[in-house]
Write a structure and sequence with these properties.
The protein is α+β, with helices and mostly antiparallel strands and 507 residues long. The protein has helices at residues 49-57, 75-82, 131-135, 227-241, 260-272, 305-323, 482-492, and strands spanning 2-3, 22-24, 41-46, 68-73, 100-102, 142-149, 155-160, 166-172, 180-185, 189-193, 200-205, 210-214, 253-257, 280-281, 298-300, 327-339, 344-347, 356-365, 373-376, 382-385, 391-395, 402-404, 412-422, 447-449, 461-463. Helix 4 crosses helix 7 (482-492).
Length: 507
């Protein structure tokens, strides 16, 4: 993936929504669509005291707001966004006034929790020298946007000004690895053109931080008998998980919750890019069989670099608090959206880089039963963790076997995965636990099923030692070998018949 030089043509950006003097006392009154998400970008500022007049003085109706609706807030809305108001006597200029940009697409329930980067901070940020600068900064109107080419040929990417004149930017080569991310402004227009025929294959005006595809990748669906390969793979994954000496937590995993501001940012990005041509098919045809892409679609929304960097920093703090040691970021992947029938083979992650990780559920819908993440603890007992949007699962991903072998029943399920290791230590897995590391929880005494067999994350299985937590699988399964993992995969998936299948040579 390519990161371009900053593409700053701010003076040519489209004007935003006409600067009406909307005032709201509760964030429930912000304009929302039929799904309860903000229908427009919002520039919020105080609706009482001297700040209202100071802000509105520099935001005339003709201001260039990059499609942000100016909204004055008072009462509960102001308290939720800005906290306690400063004394009026302390307000000398607009630089003393709070303001914040809210992203289109954020859930109404999360609108009161913007990221710190979205606030007007003239004393701390050079690009917030004035309110006008703030509106044209990355806090508001300036965004990062990606272009992916899945046509047969390399394309030419152009920026188009208001007069319709084209400016050539660079070639847009094929596939995900050649994605072009650029910094631009909401309202800027781009064309992707076939250089041989001059056919315009994409004409798009940027509305938010995001990504867009010119055509789409294709993973053809086909019948495959992969039992032999899965059996071999499960034996290999079992051996790999035994290579890791070091542990970080009693069970090897835990469940938590995203901070509201990070969740709101992820939700707005996902919501704005949730449909094609923003959401594209993931390139699985050369990545093995861990996801059953030949049976059901597996979709992908690439995350722009700057947004990824912001999320990575915040999530690192969350994971570091869980493991209790200094860690460094090694990877973030997603957003992957699984569809009906999806399965994820039991596996462990890359041993040198993926010591501790997070699964983040961003969205799910129309499920007819929970789609649990299966995690094996340090005694190889199976836990099945039910997640809701905004939930996270911490896990020691190079040691704790994990997957989702039961097919996704209905709907869709969108996740982000982020990975870390101890700071500057690619050989971390060969080392003994440092002093103070929690002891792995091996013996938990006798365990009994006290709940329903389809009840997850609610303590359906109780053991003599309650420290084992509420997520033990009601199937009360413990693995002792790769063959056990393979038998688990067979037992929870669709049944095979003995009709002819594609041979391995055809795969």
């Amino acid at each position: 993936m390519h990161r371009s030089l900053v593409f700053l043509l701010g003076g040519a950006a489209l004007s935003g929504v006409s600067a009406g003097r909307t005032v709201v006392s509760t964030l429930d009154d912000l304009p929302c669509d039929e799904n309860g998400h903000l229908a427009t970008h919002v520039l919020a500022y105080p609706g009482t005291g001297p700040c209202r007049a100071l802000v509105e003085k520099v935001l005339p109706p003709e201001a260039n707001l990059y499609q942000h609706l100016p909204v004055a807030v008072d009462g509960e809305a102001a308290l939720q966004l800005f906290g306690e108001s400063p004394d009026d006597s302390e307000i000398k200029s607009v630089a003393d006034c709070p303001a914040v940009c809210l992203d289109r697409g954020v859930d109404k329930s999360l609108a009161g929790h913007p990221l710190p980067e979205k606030f007007f901070e003239p004393g701390d940020r050079e690009d917030h020298g004035s309110l006008k600068d703030f509106v044209s900064s990355t806090s508001c109107g300036r965004v990062e946007f990606g272009f992916i080419n899945y046509t047969p040929n390399t394309l030419s990417l152009y920026w188009v000004n208001h007069a319709g004149d084209r400016t050539y930017l660079y070639p847009l080569e094929r596939k995900e690895r050649n994605t072009r991310f650029i910094h631009t402004f909401i309202g800027h227009r781009f064309l992707a053109v076939d250089p041989d025929t001059e056919e315009e294959l994409l004409d798009y005006t940027v509305e938010f931080t995001g990504v867009i595809g010119v055509s789409n990748h294709d993973n053809p669906h086909q019948q495959r008998d992969i039992r032999k390969r899965v059996q071999q793979t499960m034996n290999g994954e079992w051996r790999k998980h035994l290579q890791v000496t070091r542990t970080f937590s009693p069970l090897g995993f835990d469940k938590g919750r995203l901070p509201d501001d990070v969740f709101g940012s992820m939700r707005s990005f996902y919501y704005n890019n949730r449909d094609p041509p923003h959401r594209l098919m993931e390139e699985w045809d050369s990545k093995g069989l861990y996801v059953n892409y030949w049976e059901t679609d597996c979709n992908f929304i690439q995350i722009p670099w700057d947004l990824k960097h912001t999320w990575q920093g915040r999530l690192k703090d969350v994971v570091q608090a869980w493991v209790g040691v200094e860690i460094e970021q090694t990877d973030m992947y997603g957003i992957r959206q699984y569809e009906t029938g999806a399965r994820l083979l039991t596996h462990v992650d890359r041993i040198t880089t993926h010591a501790v990780s997070l699964i983040v559920n961003i969205a799910q819908g129309n499920l007819t039963q929970p789609w649990t993440v299966e995690v094996y603890d340090h005694a190889d007992r199976l836990h099945e963790v039910e997640m809701k949007p905004g939930d996270v699962v911490y896990y020691e991903s190079a040691k704790a076997l994990h997957g989702r072998n039961t097919p996704l029943a209905g709907g869709y399920y969108a996740n982000i995965f982020t990975h870390y290791r101890p700071m500057g230590d690619p050989q971390w897995y060969q080392k003994e636990n440092p002093e103070g590391t929690p002891e792995p929880l091996i013996d938990v005494g006798e365990c009994k099923l006290v709940g329903k067999k389809d009840e997850y994350s609610k303590g359906a299985v109780q053991c003599d030692n309650p420290a084992v937590g509420p997520h033990l699988s009601p199937k009360m399964f413990t693995a002792t070998s790769g063959e056990d993992l393979y038998q688990w995969w067979l037992s929870v998936g669709p049944k095979f018949d003995d009709e002819p299948h594609a041979t391995e040579d055809e795969l």
